[in-house]
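Please, structure for the following, as tokens.
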Amino acid sequence: MANIVVVGAQWGDEAKGKVVDYLAPHVDMVVRFGGGNNAGHSVTVGTELYKFHLVPSGILNPHLTCVIADGVVIDPGALVVEIDGHKGRGLNFENLRIAAGAHVILPYHRLLDQLAEERLGDGKLGTTGRGVGPAYTDKAARIGIRMGDFVRPDRFAERLKVALEQKNAILTKVFNLEPLSFEALYKEYSEYAAKLRPYVHDTAALVYEAAVNSRGILFEGAQGTLLDLDLGTYPFVTSSHPTAGGACVGTGIGPTMIDAVIGVAKAYTTRVGSGVFPTELLDETGNYIRERGHEYGTTTGRPRRCGWLDTVILRFAARVNGLTCLSLGHLDVLAGLDEVNVCVAYQTSEGETLRDLPADFSYRTDIQPIYETLPGWKEDVSAATTLAELPANAQRYVERVQELAETRIGTLSVGPGREQTIVLDKTLEEILASTRARR
């Protein structure tokens, strides 16, 4: 079976969780490889809606091993609440594994995240304030606490004392706040550690064994390509690598073990937080898309900014991820519009046409979208099971997006349910069947 990376091809919130859930029956393992509980995946099964923040979406499939890998930063309290909540709904966590090398988010990370955002004033980045960025900062500064240390009381105490001394100096001298209590923090978080200890393992070895023996792995990305720390629309990015390369960095498997990369995109574009957004719709059409698409954050509840599909972004995502195909979703949301626009390029204030994403995108307030207008469709598409069952204008839209993105479309989503997925041609079957020779 294939080892497949599932990544967001836009700014996140593309419904990667649904794609992972749909593909999960074909593999033996689902691995979350980056980010923290600043991300959220929603999966609809029948009449039940499940929301995941750290737990891989594959947990809905009892036969799977689900891994939270080394590249993830983990808020222990949030993870305990998430696990307990889903256990209460009947989900089984016996096959959950947490990487000993994953870093821990602690209260001072959340506090410093919120304080730093407040100090930026009008220049806020739009973070969720959950401490993800500061936790990755500590990881890079080599003063972070990893899960393997966290679940060992002696090591946790030792590492926490060192970290807290530094953090309290910042809190008291820079922000004029009271220092955090070591005793209180250690007591509270030791209780979380005791609950999570049974799940902590050397997951790099576990994932490698599954990959090399072709058991089939889904590498579940969080956020999206345009939020990648190196390749995204800096500085309005996350602190990790949600591109396909992050699946290798965050799990310990090599790129030669990846068989395919599926990029997930909406049939329109959304963005959360600050930053340039050329196709944003600040009108009734934007509100129409937001309400029909339920475009409010899974984690924060914040309304998402909505706009027409931007294929400049999709071509960029295809290039930096090496996409095998796209999974195009939310096609049903566009039903009812007389016309549908697609951004094919940008035009600068000097009249230059840009087909590629400029490196200084986040500062290019002068760029305007160049649109191609296609006829809309009034029909409800949510019950369609094949491409031929879609209205002619919807079919043409899908075909044109595929041409402009320069990437074949493997699946279409016409609603949130598992069954509301259309497989195009044999693209998906080819991906699931493909495995490279393993040494």
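The chain has a mean pLDDT of 92. The CA atoms of residues 279 and 307 lie 5 Å apart.
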